[in-house]
Amino acid sequence: MIVKTACFKAVTSIFAGAMLFVSLSTQAADRTKLDGRFIQGGMVIGQTEKGAKVTFQDHELLLSDEGQFVFGFHRDAPESQNLTITYTDGSSETIPIAIEQREYNVQRIDGLPSKQVSPPEEIMVRIRDDNRQIGEARANITDEDWYLEDFIWPSVGPISGIYGSQRILNGQPRQPHYGIDIALPTGSPVVAPASGIIRLVHDDMYFSGGTLFLDHGAGLMSAFLHLSKIHVKEGQFVKQGELIADIGATGRVTGAHLDWRINWFENRIDPALLVPPMPK
Ligand SMILES: [Zn+2]
């Protein structure tokens, strides 16, 4: 087995000089204010006029009663994406959002036996069924604004895996790691990082084992993987900080840990960008 680790830039920016500018936490247009992380994997909260129609990446955003909304950027989001707002007076504006580009850790492993690369058919059947249930859970888009809460860590412990890293096995790029891994013993508590509605409870998915989805509203959803026990039911509302599950080592893992992920629709958000630094 040959292991090569390389750090490379996913997209080389020709606007390197603009990097500092795009890291600023606010981008403003005339009648709309945006706050957040303008970086791949980042999430942004907007404030506009009530009744406005806001679109980003072909999604029409759900506005809160106060005119707030949320959107985010995928791991490999381009340098710029447009936010379009149509106000109730009929006028509209298009705001180009500058997105800072990141570097991710990429590891190449060659010479693996082929069964580790492509699962057999009976496993594929199970994986497809898991994916169908995941798709159905993600299709729940709620007109709620729990995403406005300041997110907290669902578990406090050593970070053993980060967002964006990727392995290339026998030359085939695998799905990048979209979560943050927190290494703690089986049975350690997992709490809701923000309030929401439980959308998926599954005891034993092939890859992710005990799996839980928590919907924070308007297309923003947390996932918690490899759980040993789940304390909540689908459709249940949970408040931020409430115990929802126990950490485990279920699914395809080598040891007990929590893998916490966040989606905004199909975009993978980096959970570490939503919370303060991990407490010591
Ligand atoms: Zn993980």
Description:
- The chain folds into two domains: 97 residues, Immunoglobulin-like (Sandwich), CATH 2.60.40; 162 residues, Glucose Permease (Domain IIA) (Distorted Sandwich), CATH 2.70.70.
- The chain is mainly beta.
- The protein is 8% helix and 41% strand.
- It is globular and about 60 Å long.
- The two termini are 36 Å apart.
- Strands 11, 14, 15, 16, 17, 18, 19, 20, 21 and 22 form a ten-stranded antiparallel β-sheet that branches. Strands 1-10-12-13 form a four-stranded mixed β-sheet, with no helix packed on it.
- The N terminus is likely disordered.
What are the key terms here?
280 residues, mainly beta, Immunoglobulin-like, Glucose Permease (Domain IIA), 2 domains, 22 strands, 8% helix, globular, disordered N terminus, binds zinc ion
